[in-house]
Amino acid sequence: MFKERMNEACSVLERPHMRKGLAWLGGGIVCAFLALWLGLPKVLDWAIERFGSEALGRQVSVERVAFNPFKLNVRLEKLRIAGTKGQAALLEIEGLELNLSSLSLWHRGLVLDSLRFERPVLRFARTGENRYSFSDIVDRLNSGPKASPKAAPARLSLNNIVLVEGRVEFD
Question: What pTM was estimated for this model as a whole?
Answer without folding.
Answer: 0.73
